Structure formats: structure tokens, C-alpha cells
Amino acid sequence: MFSCWLSRLCRGLSTPTGRVTHLIQGSLSRRLMLSSQRIPELSSFVARTNTCGELRSSHLGQEVTLCGWIQYRRQNIFLVLRDFHGLVQVVIPQDESAASVKKILCEAPMESVVQVSGTVISRPPGQENPKMPTGEIEIKVKSAQLLNTCKKLPFEIKDFVKKTEALRLQYRYLDLRSFQMQYNLRLRSRMVMKMREYLCNLHGFVDIETPTLFKRTPGGAKEFVIPSREPGKFYCLPQSPQQFKQLLMVGGLDRYFQVARCYRDEGSRPDRQPEFTQIDIEMSFVDQIGIRSLIEGLLQYSWPSDKDPVVVPFPSMTFAEALASYGTDKPDTRFGMKIVDISDVFRNTKVGFLQDALSKPQGTVKAICISEGAKYLKRKDIESLRKLAADHFNQEVLPVFPKANRNWNSPVAKSIMEEQRSELIRLMEIQEDGVVLLTAGEHRKACSVLGKLRLECADLLEARGLVLRDPALFSFLWVVDFPLFLPKEENPGELESAHHPFTAPHPSDIHLLHTEPKQVRSQHYDLVLNGNEIGGGSIRIHDAELQRYILATLLKEDVKLLSHLLQALDFGAPPHGGIALGLDRLICLVTGAPSIRDVIAFPKSFRGHDLMSNAPDSLPPEELKPYHIQVSWPADSEAEKSSLNQPYHPES
Amino acid sequence: MFSCWLSRLCRGLSTPTGRVTHLIQGSLSRRLMLSSQRIPELSSFVARTNTCGELRSSHLGQEVTLCGWIQYRRQNIFLVLRDFHGLVQVVIPQDESAASVKKILCEAPMESVVQVSGTVISRPPGQENPKMPTGEIEIKVKSAQLLNTCKKLPFEIKDFVKKTEALRLQYRYLDLRSFQMQYNLRLRSRMVMKMREYLCNLHGFVDIETPTLFKRTPGGAKEFVIPSREPGKFYCLPQSPQQFKQLLMVGGLDRYFQVARCYRDEGSRPDRQPEFTQIDIEMSFVDQIGIRSLIEGLLQYSWPSDKDPVVVPFPSMTFAEALASYGTDKPDTRFGMKIVDISDVFRNTKVGFLQDALSKPQGTVKAICISEGAKYLKRKDIESLRKLAADHFNQEVLPVFPKANRNWNSPVAKSIMEEQRSELIRLMEIQEDGVVLLTAGEHRKACSVLGKLRLECADLLEARGLVLRDPALFSFLWVVDFPLFLPKEENPGELESAHHPFTAPHPSDIHLLHTEPKQVRSQHYDLVLNGNEIGGGSIRIHDAELQRYILATLLKEDVKLLSHLLQALDFGAPPHGGIALGLDRLICLVTGAPSIRDVIAFPKSFRGHDLMSNAPDSLPPEELKPYHIQVSWPADSEAEKSSLNQPYHPES
Question: Where would I find the Aminoacyl-transfer RNA synthetases class-II family profile domain in this sequence (chains A, B) (predicted)?
Fold first, then answer.
């Protein structure tokens, strides 16, 4: 439906893109063929008989009533009416007897809302518009009604009119009329509905709502707090329904899912929202492979039909492999440029920083090869990559041109002997114009910097016109075998959970739990799409003793905060596992939207503000009284305080 | 699926009820006949091959693997295994070679979780259990695995074991294993899924998520507040997505719905939850009839197939009629006992309080007739009804027995002359043993007290064994033509919205808006089921000027708080309307559950507490710091404060 609208608006409006139109038409017919599903009735229960976008030659002679917005008007003769479904041309009657209809249709400002009734007629020969799905017909109007007028708009509802994001967010209700927002929100709705069909109707999952007024979880520093009417007592908004979903398994619900609203207070981080949505899933008696198959089926089933179909099973990679080859736990596998360990090539090097690195026990030399780099990258590009490595990772990076005739004035590069050069070419399969970026140091650090440079290089090459990452390609990847624990950042002698404390250890590593916990891998798995983490989950601990040992002995958490969960595990908890998919991010990638704010109807700004309604807002102190709280004003905000204390003028 | 499980558990366990079994069997076959929908695969992706509840004679000879909880064990020979889907009998092997299997199955405590593999075999002749859906077969076990043990439970997982609600809520994860909770939650999930199919797939609605971190709405005194990281700035949790759904219509989304989480802080009110769920709907270009047809179709489509089908259209009644005949805006129309105005009968009465009432300009005499009341009600019942009227309404109520030979020693009753008596019999169609309860006063007050007594009488009669309200009957009713405004409780000279300020006035009454606003009826409608309000909505104001006039001039609200909405109406807002259904209450009525807490997985207690996890809970002051708030301790809670200030020991 939306895609139909998309193609129509695309073709009828100002930004016709052959590619989109083509895709959409293909998708529509494919959907009609593949699925026997009833097409939704879009005009049931309302004043109109049809949508603006659906009329064709097959409707000729029909009496129709349409409702929509005035998109534009030509010489008081034609008017183009728009609704969510498309555009249609309306002929303004010119004869005396229809003067009142003419007056309404000619005087209403653009974006006014009108209802028109009339007959579907053919356009005169030669006046058909093949770019417009309704371009063969027009409406001969008999009556018209002005439903609402429109004042002067802050921006035009035309896709080619560029506006700042702040303006779009302030007038979100106008921005929502745009082609792209309608497409994104309708695709989201449709895709979630298909996910529900797959889970509920095909696999017997139970959709269960869990509370969002909960209590602080251990380590829940990013949870919003909500004062209750009991002095000093607070609810918290949970970051996920993790505890509840596990308790549902203990409760024998067997297969749970929820499209769950979650909350995370991270202050202002780009492309994060204080509230977000995840597809939350938990199953009893399942293993990793079971969850992975479920999710592969889920994405395949719900994937929009105007995109290339999803191929299953998804490849998988261990965390160790991801780090070694891509320098990250979320590799973008749409392109190569993998990290290669070339330590052996440089065992006898004279290059100082390589020598230094290799003299240390954990020292390595690593490299990536940029194919055609010498052709497409400029010297300043290479320099900016080196600077990035130096500034953000404190790592030296050396560019080498093994087969190119260029050799920038790098004294170090000259120290690479001919023998090393040919070994490098062999090992890394370097072609003409390949550029090698080389670094040295501890494995993890060397990989991280090259992982970052790999992505930067891809951006640079694509800015020069190369296509490394096909925008139509969706490259899914499972990353598995993560470590169960990491050293605490603030105190590396202590351990913290790499993901969360309910993650089960890898069965092969259980024996290490008491001796070398840092070596224990977990049964956590991440789902990565085009280099973005779009989901993660694990098989959980169902043994109360193991859970107590990990929480109390290894993580040194206060188990009292989790006593209900520990107790639940004592009372016949089944083995279970689950996953959560980040819906906003997933839809963002599917639609190709530049930001998750483009797939959310009313998103918050970077700083967590609703620019339309001005939330968060100040409250008069008496409204805080029932909650037994008062504001602790920072010392430097006295001025602000006095202005904010004015009750009922929160916008001043 | 759940109903299948229901019947099995019902029949196999301790509370066999012929009625339920019969209904379920009927419903299952009806569903299989009516719907071509694929039956969910309940054992996909997991260790088992089948659920415990599904095995039949048709599975004989199959090798199966089952996972479940040990429900009971007989003489170390049989074991009954339970999962969400039902029960199955497992034969514990007795031969030496299977000693380890026998040991596992005989030693595991009740409610332990086991996995067994074996063959489906016939039960020996004469040992079939016709009350158990799997009663023809049993499992000859070859291998068994103890997946988890169970410690001593706080209560048995048997439906006949009575437990207090507090205990059930504290161990909710155990309570969820009960037949009734599984049935309720699965019915809820299924019904919501059908609603989504109806809205999305059949009628093109778009499922859109709206924010829950919003700002205070005017008059939003029941909204929870959430401090942000900006000093003195707060988000609020909205009571409904009202503003957002209207803004989506302005945004041209045309048809919106959401299964929306809403929040209301009412302290402790019985059968309310601080967070609740509504089916939230909004449409453009729609009128009242359109919304009503949509909802009738929605309920008909989603109604569980094991209940009597929903008959549409639903009857409707004006607010005035509901008040006059039932004394309430949510009449229970499953039974009669309507209120009758009998003022004319008593124009010449000598009874003092009737005389008094009728001498006033608005005075009326009203009555209800309790059929068979003289037979079923005792004198103390009548007295308790009179006391209720006196205590709660300050109203005198007079019992009259027009055709009964009883006449309690009421001097007033004797003053009712024979002529009035026969007129009463005629007017109210009083039969033998009918009892009339009579009151006098201003219309609204007289109706209210009789409306309350009507429901009390029904309870009393049903406690005596009469059936007035068939529990299988679902009596839907639309109540329409509400007043748009009510006098403010604290200041009756001023007006407040009867529902909310966005409700459109009734088209016939627009002319009264400037002259007699109190007389204006609204385009609000309520949906009532068996005397409970389960939904409400309205056609909204789409005219900015009208909205400004009502907000600023009539309601004297600060329009600044709603400037974004008013501005949106200025920019081509389409006519629109919508409704919200209270999902918790609806599911509660459909399942016949005693409380909405029985249809919510993890409800809060009366006082808004999560008895399982102990939320809300105290927080150490340093966790409040980022939010620039501190607790204002009431003077008498110093002791509490000192205990609560202990960080990380919130349960102490």
C-alpha cells in the first residue's frame, strides 16, 4: 500500500527516480502474486469512496467522493488533490451554474483540506500523464466542500524543499505529510505486523506486556527514575524487559515476545533516543541454533517485498575472528579489506616502531590493503587516516605502496626491504595500485585501529565514486563466542559482565569458571547488519547456584536486589534463551534512512527534547509536592530558577 | 491453542467442568472449520518434538522427546508431565538396564523440569482416562534428563489450592503456571493479534508508536513526572496518546492505531493499575457512525471463538436516556428493573417526603420494581438498601409491596392510597411478589440512587439463586450525546470538559455554544459492556478558532501549553475522530476474571507495589543527583529516612 503510494507520489511529484519506481512496481506485483492476503480496504467507514491514489481507467464513469489536501492548482482550471495514497487531478468546473464549487476550489489556499464529489473521466487525448499512476483519468467535479483551510506554512510540503531537521521536528505534523516519512512509518507498521504473524500465528508465541514501572536493576545507572507518592520511593523505567521475560519462562509461558518500549538515559548521544523499541523474544528449551533459526525465519518472513529477499542461514563468526579480521565486534561484511597479521614478514625489520612492537610478548604487526587506493586516494587522505590513528588510538600507521610507482617521501617506507615487499604482496594478494596501511602493537589495539581505518577508507573511496557497499545489499552476520566477562574499566582487577549477568557460560568453558573466569566464553550472540548491531541475546543461566556464584562471587553484586529472580530459578526454571532486536535501527537500515529519527513518528532531538511540544518542561513546585521531591538547583542557575518557578508559564 | 490446553488440563486435573470442556471442544472444531489459518507450530526450534498436550492415538509408535514439569508421580511407576499445552502420562521403566532413568524420574521433586525421550504407546485396556485428552496413550521412556530441580514451593501449582492474592503476586512466576493465568494471557495475546489483523490487514490502519516521555498536559494532575538531567525540567508519562494521535491525523497518516501503554497516578484505587493498555484508534474524514461500525467489526472479528459470537450493530442510547432509565452512564442492560418516573401518580400524595419533593420545581418521584422481590428478599435486605441510599446519597427510599400480602410496619407505606397502588401496578407492570423501591427528589439524584440500588438488588437476588445476568451474555451498548461541559466541582460557576477539551460539539447544538454552553451536547461516545465502560471516544475539533474559543474563553485554560496543537489545526487539519478501548478491562470481562490483575502478567497491588520485586524502592541520594532532585522527607518520617538512606540496601 505504502509502496503504491510511494511510486505514485514519486512519479507525480518533483523527484521522480526511475529506480524507486521500478522497484515498487516490481514489488507490488510480486506481492499480489505471492500472497493471497486480502488487500486492505482503505476507504471503509469514511466519507470518501476512494483514495486519491487508486483511480485508474478501470474506474471511468464511476461517481466518486475524495478527500484530500490541495497539492497545487493550475490557472484555476486544474487542481491536484493529495492523500496518503497518491495524487489525482481534479477539473475545476467553469460554467456559471457551478460558480460556488469553482469559488471553493479556486480560493482555498494550498494544503487546505477539501472533499469533492464527481465523475471519473478520461483525460483528453494527449493530456495523459504517464509519470502519474492516476495520469489517465481526472475527476469532473459536481460538488465540493472546504473541510479546513491552511494558514501560511513554515515550509512547503514538497520533497525537494530542503529544511533543517530542527524545523522538521518543530513542525513534525507537517513533516509527516512528506513522501519519505509516510513511506518509513508505513513500512515499519507493515514489517512489525508481519513479524507478529510469524511469531504468533506460525510459531505459537504469546505476546505479553511487561511493566515499565519497575525498580532499579543492579548497575542500572542509565535508568530514568520516577518518584512515587511514598516519600523516598522511586520506580525506574527499565532498559529492557530482561528480568520479566526470564520470569515468564519460569512461569511456563514457553514462548514470549513483545514489541517492547525501553528506556535509556544516556544524555545526548547521537542517534540514540531516550525511549526506543525492541522486538523482545524468549523461549524455553532452546539453544543458540534454535534462536538463530527463529530470527532468520522472522526476518525472511517480514522482509519488505520491495527489497531483495533475505538469504538464510546467515553466516556466523566468532568474536575473536571478527576482531582479528575486522577490528570490531560488528563487522561490515559487504566489502573485504580484511585485517591481516603480517608479524612474520617483519621479524627482522629495521623499522623502529615495528621492531619495538615485535620485541614485546604480545606484539604484532597488522595491515589492511586498500585496493585501488593509489588510484583513488590522495596524499591528504592518507595523512588524515594516519592522524586519526594517532589522535584517537595513539597508534602509528605506515602507508606502503608495494606495487605502485608512488612512494611518498616516507623515510620509514624506504626501510622496507624488497624481500618484505614481495612477501607482503603474496600474503595480502595485493594488486596494482593497492595501498597497505600497516600498524603494530598489541593484538586488540592494532586490530581496533585498522578496523576503524577500514571503514574510513570505504567512506573515502565511495566519496571518490567507487561502490564498495551496495546500498541494496543486506549483509547479515551472527557474531558468537563473546567473552563472558571483561575487566572493569575503573578497576581492571575486578570483573564485569560483557553483556549482562544472566548470560550462560559456554558449555566448553564451564570448567574455567572457578579457575580462569576471564577465559570463559559466553553463550551470547549478536546479530549484525551491514556493520550495525541490530540485535543481541543469549542462552540464560537457569541454575540458581551458578547464577548466585556469578553474581555474588565473581561480580560482587548485591544479590538482594535480584532475590526474586534467584528464587525463581530455584523453583523449577526451564532452560531458556532469547534475543532482542533493535527495531528503530533495523527499520532505519531497511529504509535507508539517514537517522533513526526518520523512522520514529515523534522523535526526540539530540539533547532529548521534543522540539514540537517543548518537553521536558518545568513544573510548578506544588506539582512536585505529592511526590515528595524538590529541585536541587545548581548554584549557577539562580536566574533560571526564578524564571522557572513561575507556575503555568513553562515556556517563558 | 490455549483453549485446547485448557480443556486438557481441566479434564485431566482436579476441576473438571463439563461446561468448559464442552465449550472448548465446540470452539476448537468451529475454529478449524471457519478458519483456514495455519495452526502454529509449537515445537519449532526447540529440543522437544511434541508438546505434552498434543499426543493422541494417531501418534502411536512415534519416537518423541518431551520437556515439562513433573505434575505428579504414582508409586514410582507413572509420572505425569505438564507443559503449557497439557498433561501426558510417562511410564517409568522398571528394568535393571534403565536404572539411571528410573532414578532420575523417581527422585526429582515435584515441579522439577525434565526432558524425556521414548515411544508413544497405547495404555493397557481399561486404563484409558477419558477425562484426559492424552488419556489413550502414554510414553514408554528410553532416556531422561533432569533439566532443573525444584525446591519446596510456597504453594502447590494446583488450581484447587487456594492462595491469597498477595502470595500469588509475590510468587507471580509460579502463579503464572496456573491454568487460569495461562488461559487469560494466551486469550489476551490471541485477541489482540486478531484486532491487529482487522485493523492493519483488513482496513489499512498504520500501527504507530507515540512517545511516553512527554510534557504535562493541562489538567494532567494524575501524570507521573520524570526528572531529566536538566535542572528543574521534567518529562511526564501521558495518560493517553490523545495529542499525538490527533497530530498524526494532521500529518496525513489517515488511519492510526496503537496498542498503547498509558499511565495514571491515582494512588490506590481498587482495580486500577498505574500503567494500563488501550487500543488507541484515530481516523480522518470519519463520523460517529463510522467509528462505531469500525469498533463493532473489530470486536466481532477478534472475539474468542469459544464465546458466543458478538451480534452487531450494538444498540445505542443517549446519555439522558441512560440516566433516566438506569441512573448511570454505563447501564448494565443484561437485565431490566428500569427506573420509572412516577411523579404523576403521586401528585396528590399525603406522604411527606414525596409531597416535599414534588412541591419543588425540579422535583420528581422515581421507582424501580424488583420482580419476585417479595419472594427472595428479606426484610434486612430492604433495610440495607434503604440504609445505603441514606448513607451514600442522603436519599429516603420507600419500599412498597403493591401486590404482595406483606406490609412491613411502615407507617408511610400505609399512606399510599389504593388508587395510587393500582396506578403503580399498571404503570410499572408489577407482577405477583414485585417490590417497588421509591424515592423522590431532583431528577439526576433520584435516578442515581435508584441506579445504584438496581445493581445492589441484582447482587442480592443472585446471591439468593436467581440468575439475572447470564455470565455467558455480552451486552454491548453505545452511550451517546453526552453533555460537552460540566460545572466544575470546586467552582460550579465555571465549566470543565465532560471528557476532554478536544471533543467536538454536537452539530445540532453549535448555536448554543456562545449562549448556553451548558446545554451543548458533544460528539463523545462511550462503549459499555455489561455495565462497564470499556471504551470512549469522540469526533474531535478540527477548527483552530473553535478550539481556541473553547480552551481560552469557555474553559479558561492556558492555551500556551497547547500551542503546538492549536498551530497544527491551523495548517490544514482534516476532520477526524477516534476511540480508545480499555484492553485490561475488556479482557477481564471476556475471560470472566475477578480482577484486571488476573489478565496482566505482572500487575501492581492496590497500593501500586510490585510485590515480587519490591517496586517502588528507595534509591541512594547520589543516584538522584544527576536529576537535580532531592527527597522532601515529611516531618514524621525521620526514622524511615535514616533507614532508607542506606545505599544499596533498599529492601532493608
Answer: 185-603
Whole-angstrom Cα distance, residue A598 to residue A590? Answer: 12
CA distance A276 to A188: 14
DSSP state of B14: S
* C-alpha closest to that of A371 among A402, A396, A347: A402
Alpha-carbon distance A338 to A447, whole Å? Answer: 10
Interface of B with A in 257-276 (CB under 8 A): 261, 263, 265, 267, 274-275
Cβ of A627 under 8 Å from any chain B Cβ? Answer: yes
Tell me the Ramachandran region of residue A219: left when phi exceeds 0, alpha when psi lies from -120 to 50, beta otherwise.
left
Contact assessment for residue B210 and residue B241, using Cβ atoms and an 8 Å cutoff: yes
- Domain spanning B2-152 has what CATH number? 2.40.50.140
- Return the C-alpha cell found at B521: 451536547
The CATH topology of domain A177-314+473-600 is: BirA Bifunctional Protein; domain 2 (3.30.930)
Contact A235 B615 (CB under 8 A): yes
Secondary structure (3-state) at B191 = helix
Single out the residue of A521, A318, A339, A522 nearest to residue A445, CA to CA. Answer: A339
The strand pair at A225-227 and A233-236 is best described as: antiparallel
User: Residue A516: is its pLDDT beyond 80?
Assistant: yes
- Centre a 10 Å sphere on the Cβ of residue B336 and count the other Cβ atoms it contains: 12
Question: With a CB-CB cutoff of 8 Å, which residues 291-310 of chain A face chain B?
Answer: 291, 293-294
Distance between CA atoms of residues B236 and B587, nearest Å: 27
- Residue A177 near chain B (CB below 8 Å): yes
CA A578 vs. chain centroid, Å, equals 20
A550/B contact by beta carbon, under 8 A = no
CA distance, residue B130 to nearest chain A CA (Å):
25
Closest CA in chain B for residue A249: B173
The answer to whether ipTM exceeds 0.90 is yes
Q: Count of alpha carbons within 13 Å of B388, Cβ hemisphere only?
A: 17
Domain boundaries, chain B: 2-152, 335-463, 617-652
CA distance A205 to chain B (A): 8
Does the distance separating the beta carbons of B237 and A574 come in below 8 Å? no
Residue type, A404: A
Residue A162 contacts B where some CB pair is shorter than 8 Å: no
**How does pLDDT run across B487-527, given as a tens digit for each residue?**
998 898 899 999 999 999 999 999 999 999 999 999 999 99
Predicted confidence (pLDDT) per residue in B331-386, tens digit: 999 999 999 999 999 888 888 888 889 999 989 999 999 999 989 999 899 999 99
Strand partners, B282: B256, B578
Helix (H, G, I), strand (E, B) or coil at B22: helix
Q: Write the residue in B185, B209, B616 that is nearest to A208 by C-beta.
A: B185
- pLDDT digits over A314-344, tens only? 999 999 999 999 999 999 999 999 999 999 9
| H helix or E strand, kind and range, residue B173 | helix B172-175
Side chain identity at residue B330, one-letter code = K
The DSSP 8-state label assigned to residue B264 in this structure reads -
Separation in Å, CA A415 to CA A83, A231, A348, A362, A412: 68, 72, 11, 23, 5
Check CB contact under 8 Å for A558 and B48.
no
| DSSP-assigned letters across all residues of A606-622 | TTS-BTTTTBSEE--HH
Host H or E run for residue B144: strand B137-148
Over residues A116-144, mean pLDDT: 97
B559 close contact with A: CB closer than 8 A? no
What H or E segment, with its residue span, contains residue B299? Answer: helix B288-302
Topology at the third CATH level for domain A335-463: Gyrase A; domain 2 (3.30.1360)
Residue B68 has pLDDT above 80, yes or no: yes
In chain A, what is the straight-line distance between the N-terminal and C-terminal CA atoms, in Å? 44
Which is nearest to A288 in space by CA: A586, A551, A484, A575? A575
